[in-house]
Specification:
single chain; 123 residues; mainly alpha; de novo design (two linked rop proteins); elongated
Length: 123
């Protein structure tokens, strides 16, 4: 297979999947080291659903369906930032870990917002 035959890299899919893995590892750490089970579960659910929705949007039935799924992914990303902020302010997350995860979710939010905005213009 030649390089030109390879599928174009889907940056939002790559970033959302990588972020989901980071969230899973962080969730496991919160449970084992801090015995925090409630807030961390909320973070796990919203943080991993972003990538699932992006994957779902890949095979959307229409442009409108694609836009809808990506908009929900954006909402989940925003919710994830909320849970991350709560965990940081309640001192479950170190400043270093918070900065890394917050940077990742901020990038995802910007990317998803841009996709939703441009997708709405095409509908």
């Amino acid at each position: 297979m030649k390089i030109k035959d390879l599928p174009k890299e889907n940056i939002v899919q790559k970033k959302s999947f990588s972020f989901a893995l980071d969230i899973v590892h962080f969730y496991k750490k919160l449970q084992s080291e801090h015995k925090e089970f409630v807030l961390s579960k909320q973070l796990l659910r919203s943080g991993t659903s972003i990538g699932a929705l992006v994957r779902e949007a890949e095979h959307a039935e229409s442009r409108k369906d694609f836009t809808h799924k990506m908009n929900i992914a954006l909402k989940e990303a925003n919710e994830t930032r909320y849970w991350l902020d709560i965990l940081f302010r309640s001192e479950y997350v170190s400043e270093t870990n918070y900065a890394k995860l917050n940077d990742e979710i901020t990038q995802l939010i910007k990317l998803l917002a841009s996709i939703v905005k441009s997708s709405k213009l095409k509908v």
